[in-house]
Design a protein that fits this description.
- The structure holds 2 protein chains of 2 kinds.
- By secondary structure, chain A is α+β, with helices and mostly antiparallel strands.
- Chain A folds into 2 domains: 31 residues; 96 residues, 2-Layer Sandwich (Alpha-Beta Plaits), CATH 3.30.70.
- Chain A contains 4 helices and 5 strands, in the order αβαββαββα.
- A 3-stranded antiparallel β-sheet of chain A has the order 2-3-5.
- In chain A, strand 2 and strand 3 form a beta hairpin.
- The radius of gyration of chain A is 26 Å and the shape is elongated.
- The model of chain A has no long low-confidence stretch (mean pLDDT 87).
- Chain B is an alpha/beta fold.
- In chain B, strands 1-2-3 form a 3-stranded parallel β-sheet.
- In chain B, helix 1 runs antiparallel to helix 5 and helix 2 crosses helix 5.
- The radius of gyration of chain B is 16 Å and the shape is globular.
- Classes of the chains: A alpha+beta, B alpha/beta.
- Bound molecules: iron/sulfur cluster (3 copies).
């Protein structure tokens, strides 16, 4: 019989403790980020997929050396470059990033001799097919120019 | 062990189309379904940590009616494949998928679930290269891991697919410098 009343007492106590916690949380500031209605700002070192950096004139800084392509551990980068007639340096003609196998390790960014790569701030990508995430970075770079 | 298909052909969820269609009723039902997408409690690797974060109070999936993580496949509507699918786990995933009642949807969260992610290399033997090789996938969320906002975005995409319109504003990530 004493166990019966003890159970009621313990149950009531734990109920009050629980309600106390709920009430305390209720009057504290809201922590929820109201995502689709407010957009968070990514910190400076946030890693989205990589993007080409533009210089002052808005051109990419890539010299098509292929270091990023060779060093990527999962081979998600494919580049093509060519040397125009009479020019000294190679020009980038094609830069494809298959973001679906990237691990955001940053080796490409580290190994680029001209600092032509950076992490973008894309944080809310989602789509209906995996092919949506194979990016043509050269095209993206040119689109940003406009 | 199940035999995994070799080709990457994408499977679509029309294996069981409804026998009778009621246009208006279907729309109403889809509206209800879109706003109560109950995911299965089911994490495979590191991406699951982000999925748990999305369910917790900072991001709060309950705002979209999707916070009711169900511990049984028969109670859930959407399977969030969050993480690396090892060959050993693949038959279990197929079984869980088949145990879910129709209509059901699959979200491939993270690069591992999309294509095997960082584990893809010539001669790898332990990983299924993408959830869409074993079950039909509706929404893909890339990232390693994707941020909770991306998972929310994926669920909103699924809502959009169901109802044909979007209830929430679209967010443009800040343009890169
Ligand atoms: S971050 Fe790593 S995995 Fe991604 S493209 Fe660069 S080198 Fe490849
Ligand atoms: S390492 Fe840098 S400069 Fe070389 S190809 Fe890659 S992006 Fe271009
Ligand atoms: S995509 Fe990256 S974070 Fe997600 S499960 Fe694979 S390795 Fe882990």
């Amino acid at each position: 019989m004493s166990g019966y009343f003890k159970e009621i007492f313990d149950g009531g106590k734990s109920l009050l403790v629980g309600l106390g916690i709920t009430f305390k949380q209720m009057i504290q500031p809201v922590v929820t980020e109201r995502y689709p209605r407010t957009a968070p700002k990514m910190p400076p070192r946030y890693r989205g997929h990589i993007d080409l950096v533009r210089d002052e004139e808005g051109n990419n800084k890539c010299i098509a050396c292929g270091m990023c392509q060779r060093n990527c551990p999962t081979g998600c980068i494919t580049i093509k470059g060519e040397k125009p007639e009479g020019a000294k340096k190679k020009v980038l003609t094609f830069y494809r990033l298959d973001f679906t196998t990237c691990s955001l390790c940053g080796i490409c960014v580290e190994s680029c001799p001209t600092d032509a790569l950076e992490f973008s701030k894309e944080y809310n990508l989602a789509g209906y097919s995996a092919g949506d995430f194979v990016f043509d970075l050269l095209k993206r770079c040119e689109e940003r120019r406009r | 062990m199940t035999n995994l298909p070799k080709d990457l052909k994408q499977l679509r969820q029309d294996d069981h189309p409804p026998v009778v269609h009621f246009a208006v009723l279907d729309k109403l039902l889809n509206l209800g379904r879109a706003n109560s997408l109950w995911p299965m409690t089911f994490g495979l690797a590191c991406c699951a940590i982000e999925m748990m974060a999305t369910g917790a109070s900072r991001f709060d999936l309950d705002r979209f009616g999707a916070g009711v993580f169900r511990p049984a496949p028969k109670q859930s509507d959407v399977m969030i494949v969050a993480g690396t699918i090892s060959r050993k786990m693949a038959p279990a995933i197929v079984t869980l998928y088949e145990q879910m009642p129709h209509p059901k949807w699959v979200i491939a969260m993270g690069n591992c679930a999309i294509s095997g992610g960082p584990f893809v290399f010539d001669g790898q033997y332990g990983i299924v290269e993408g959830a869409d090789r074993i079950i039909p996938v509706d929404v893909y969320i890339p990232g390693c891991p994707p941020r909770p906002e991306a998972l929310i975005e994926g669920l909103l995409k699924l809502e959009e697919q169901l109802t044909g319109s979007r209830r929430f504003p679209r967010v443009d990530p800040e343009a890169a410098p």
